[in-house]
Amino acid sequence: VDEVNQIVTSNVRLKQQWKDVNLQWNPDEYGGIKKIRIPSSDIWRPDLVLYNNADGDFAIVHETKVLLEHTGMITWTPPAIFKSYCEITVLYFPFDLQNCSMKLGTWTYDGNLVVVNPDSDRPDLSNFMESGEWVMKDYRSWKHWVYYACCPNTPYLDITYHFLMLRLPLYFIVNVIIPCMLFSFLTGLVFYLPTDSGEKMTLSISVLLSLTVFLLVIVELIPSTSSAVPLIGKYMLFTMVFVITSIVITVIVINTHHRSPSTHTMPQWVR
Predict the structure, then answer these.
(1) 156 bridge partner residues
(2) What pLDDT digit, counting tens, does each position of 194-225 carry?
(3) What does pTM read for this prediction?
């Protein structure tokens, strides 16, 4: 999952089956041969494409062989690497749950010519490899009949696979959230330091710079969207405001501490 560009890359095997009555034969007339494997470019194939493609490569380009049975049943399982667009919701980052989809359908045939049916309501994930950052919570497939404005009487079919993925937040907890909490604790220690030590401002500025670096890291990890501000971003902004407030108070404290009758006159309202 590429959160910044909002792209999900999937390595899939797209199993397709259909029947072509023009490719039937009698096994008894051909030495008992019931199955053959031929190049897929030699026969008709459904032109399935990924509608929500993110890199401009819509079609399946892998030229693999098909399994042809004597009954005319054809099985074609080409491998493909799909890059689909997925709108990333960053509100609860890094404790977020993303719902991404892959919309597959024919490009030139309408629903009256080619009917696309999924094998089941769930895709086969028997060869799915777990990621160190995401875990698959749920997955479904739906078949849709779509009528476009150009041709309201002609149905178009597509199959949409939805994947619900939960982010594993341990990496961000250890490397981002816990350090930010420690920086917040250090901000409180600024008021414990003696004013004569001369390190109050040094500690405050160091904490502010560290928080700024962490905020820049978060900005690089999430997409540039104005739809929502992630919770971790709100927390870091609140912490930064807290640190800036402590700096202002520290300046006032140091200024007051170093005042003397030779440099300042006591205001009348203080007297």
Answers:
(1) 146
(2) 777 777 788 888 888 888 887 888 777 776 76
(3) 0.72
Q: Which contiguous run of DSSP H or E holds residue 218?
A: helix 200-221
How many angstroms separate the CA atoms of 59 and 192, rounded? Answer: 65
3-state secondary structure of 151: coil
In angstroms, rounded to a whole number, what is the distance separating the alpha carbons of residues 26 and 29? 6
pLDDT tens-digit readout, 105-118: 888 888 888 888 88
Q: What is the pLDDT of residues 216-250, one digit of tens each?
A: 887 777 767 667 788 888 888 888 888 888 888 88
Neighbouring-strand partners of residue 82 = 10
SS3 87: coil
Contacts of range 2-5, beta carbons closer than 8 Å, 24 or more positions apart: 3/88, 3/90, 3/221, 3/222, 3/223, 4/220, 4/221, 4/222, 4/223, 4/224, 5/54, 5/223
Extract the tokens encoding 105: 């359908």
Distances (CA, A) of 174 to 152, 168, 169, 170, 229: 54, 12, 9, 6, 21
CB half-sphere exposure, 217, CA atoms < 13 A: 14
> Which of 254 and 8 is assigned the larger pLDDT?
8
Rounded to a whole number of angstroms, the distance between the first and last alpha carbons of the chain is: 66
List Cα–Cα distances, 200 to 35, 180, 244, 251, in angstroms: 82, 19, 13, 9
At 170-196, the pLDDT tens digits run 888 888 888 888 888 888 778 777 777
Written as six digits, the tokens of 233 are 């971003």
Ordered by where they begin, the domains of the chain are 7-167 (2.70.170.10), 170-257 (1.20.58.390)
Q: Phi/psi zone of residue 56: left (φ > 0), alpha (ψ -120 to 50 degrees), beta?
A: left
